[in-house]
Amino acid sequence: MRRRVEAGEWVIDLRDRIAFAAGFLPGSVSFPMEGSFASYLGWTVPWGAPLTLLGETPEQVARAQRELARIWADRPAAVVSGGPAQWSAGAPLASLRLAKFGGLAAAMTAGCPVVLDVRRQLEWAQSHITGARHIPLHDLSGRAGDLPPGEVWVHCQSGYRAIVAASLLAGRGREVVSVDDDFDNAAAAGRSAQILASSRCARATCSGVSPSRVSGAPHGTVQPR
Question: What is the CATH code for 2-87?
Answer without folding.
Answer: 3.40.250.10
